[in-house]
Specification:
The structure holds 2 protein chains of 2 kinds. Chain A is built from 14 helices and 17 strands. By secondary structure, chain A is α/β, with parallel strands linked by helices. The longest helix of chain A is centred in the N-terminal third of the chain and has 20 residues. Chain B has a single domain, classed as Sufe protein. Chain: A, CATH 3.90.1010.10. Chain B contains 5 helices and 4 strands. At the A-B interface, helix 11 and helix 14 of A face helix 2, strand 2, strand 3 and helix 3 of B.
Chain lengths: 436, 145
């Protein structure tokens, strides 16, 4: 049963919360088979501890924050702000005021595009991203570039799915106003050398945004060590609830940025003549926030800390190596994304079978995977495939889960009588007509 | 249940799709796209008056969308535009309602198993959406969304 069954010396009740059995959703059968959940890059499951924390809020403490003088409001405010400090420590931010709660990494990117981007990017300026970005780290910059007549530059990758650092550096120059790259690619699993990327960008005077949505559940992140200027994460990809995420930004930059949305909580005083904005982080938190979600996220941080990211990383590394070896043995299977520094993701295509069919058949075997372009169409186009099947791991997955995946793939091959790869050449040509 | 979905006829048309080529002298063309899974196809129709004199397609897609396009071309070739639209409606009913399979759709009944896989209905209907836009000469790419 992998990482989570290791006997623990701790005796406090919460210590057992690191067990797979503490994820209620994992304990079910799907189509008559035990659920094998391998879609963690889409969203992770939630431990009972996170569910309890949110329940506790609604059942016992529910109140609005930052305004009431009554007991419930004080409790809610305290728990909300405690979650902020938990996140601050989790990513080692220098100050709690640098932690801004947003809906998710996507909103974090949009916030910076709309505020920092609109203020600092002018016609002819350049923004640099990588070829492996999720749509959420492409489209906000496209919108900004279109509005400002700025230019979006794309740093290329190699056949393994690794960023070409030399080529990346060549794109940097006096017109570079921002660099935004993903920490861990959701489609390939590539871990980017983000500290090196930040050093390069800073040499050219450009701040760096790191999309950490796929990173924080799998490795220790230290935003000060990385020296990134912005970092975004999504709660639901780190065992927390949906609808809550974090934007980290260096205070010096955040202070110079205009507000994102106007409303309550983000002001110090309002008159019809003049409104004074609140201080960080509240300047960027207009309206009543997702209080329960924030508290749930705080519980998820506690949960991860109890297990320890070092252990998680070591365990997942071993599991990924096992999964890679097992998949590579399957005839006709090609892994998409074979970076030397890689986390969590096993993305592949199977000769002669479309990923959508693979996904349907695996589902009937109880194995949940993602199929499609994973909101990263450009990178899949680069690999020459319209879609892949993606199995993505979390620490609660086991070798048995990988074995179930492999058995499911052989079931696919059985149904499709592979090789279905024996299609006539004419067909292969026609197949490329509109996909190219 | 998987056997109901991946019937031999469907697998056969996936491996060896019929009418699978370009048609330079087509009078109508349309492209179909399923953004969910990236399936794309291009449909060529040669209309002779109101009759679909010839029809073909190219593209890349899953077994359900490829075989559906292949069987669609076989089914509607030689039919009138109006007949094709009627078959399309009956096919849609087959995929989405509990009604017994309607008459006159021939081999298309092999897709009745798709009903049990709601996520795959769009795969089966992509070619038909594309045919509709080819026949109505809609300028936009047909989408399943």
């Amino acid at each position: 049963m992998g990482l989570v069954t290791e006997p623990r010396a701790m005796t406090e009740p919460r210590a057992s919360a690191s067990g797979r059995e503490n994820f209620p959703v994992l304990d079910q059968r799907v189509h008559g088979k035990p659920l094998v959940y391998l879609d963690n890059a889409a969203t992770t499951q939630k431990p009972q501890m996170v569910l309890d924390a949110m329940n506790q809020f609604y059942q016992v403490d529910n109140s609005n924050i930052h305004r009431g003088v009554h007991e419930l409001s004080e409790r809610s405010t305290r728990h909300y702000e405690e979650a902020r400090v938990k996140i601050q420590r989790f990513i080692n931010a220098a100050d709690w005021r640098e932690i801004i709660f947003v809906r998710g990494a996507t909103e974090g990117i949009n916030l910076v595009a709309y505020t920092y981007g609109r203020r600092h990017v002018q016609a002819g300026d350049e923004i640099v991203i990588s070829a492996m970005e999720h749509h959420s780290n492409i489209v906000p910059w496209q919108i900004l570039c279109e509005e400002k007549q700025a230019i979006l530059r794309i740093a290329p990758i190699n056949q393994r799915g690794e960023l070409l650092l030399d080529e990346f550096e060549k794109l940097l120059g006096p017109r570079t106003k921002l660099v935004s790259v993903v920490h861990v690619s959701n489609a390939l699993g590539t871990i980017n050398p983000v500290a090196e990327i930040a050093r390069m960008a800073h040499r050219h005077g450009a701040p760096v945004f790191i999309d950490g949505a796929q990173a924080v559940a799998h490795m220790k992140v230290d935003v000060q060590a990385l020296d990134c200027d912005f970092y975004a994460l999504s709660g639901h990809k780190m065992f927390g609830p949906t609808g809550i995420g974090v934007l980290y930004g260096k205070a010096a930059l955040l202070n110079k940025m205009p507000p994102y949305q106007g409303g309550g909580d983000m002001i110090s005083s309002v008159t019809f003549a003049k409104t004074t904005y609140n201080d960080l982080p509240y300047k960027f938190e207009a309206g009543t926030p997702n209080i329960a979600g924030t508290i749930g996220l705080g519980a998820a941080v506690d949960y991860i800390n109890e297990i320890g990211l070092d252990r998680i990383q070591a365990y997942e590394h071993e599991l990924l190596a096992y999964g890679t070896a097992q998949l590579e043995r399957i005839p006709g299977l090609r892994l998409i994304g074979t970076a030397r520094e890689k986390a969590s993701v096993l993305s592949f295509v199977l000769e002669g079978v479309h990923p959508h069919d693979v996904g349907t058949i695996l589902d009937r075997e109880g194995v949940a995977v993602r199929t499609g372009h994973h909101c990263a169409q450009p990178v899949l186009e680069w690999f020459g495939v319209p879609a892949t099947t993606r199995a993505s791991l979390a620490f609660y997955n086991t070798r048995q889960d990988i074995d179930a995946l492999v058995a499911g793939i052989y079931k696919v091959k059985e149904i499709f009588g592979c090789g279905a790869g024996s299609q006539p050449a004419r067909d292969s040509q026609s197949r490329q007509e509109v996909s190219s | 249940m998987l056997d109901d979905l991946y019937q031999e006829v469907i697998l056969d048309h996936t491996r060896r799709p019929r009418n699978f080529h370009q048609m330079p002298d087509a009078t109508r063309q349309a492209e179909g796209y399923n953004p969910l899974c990236g399936d794309k196809l291009k449909l060529f129709v040669k209309l002779d008056g109101e009759t679909i004199a010839d029809i073909s397609f190219v593209g890349a897609g899953c077994a359900i969308s490829t075989s559906s396009a292949s069987l669609m071309t076989e089914t509607v070739k030689g039919k009138s535009r109006q007949e094709a639209v009627q078959i399309m409606e009956r096919f849609h009913d087959l995929l989405t309602t509990e009604k017994p399979a309607a008459a006159n759709i021939g081999k298309l009944t092999v897709f009745s198993g798709v009903r049990e896989f709601p996520a795959r209905v769009k795969c089966a209907t992509l070619a038909w959406h594309t045919l509709k836009s080819a026949l109505t000469d809609a300028a936009e790419v047909a989408s399943t969304e």
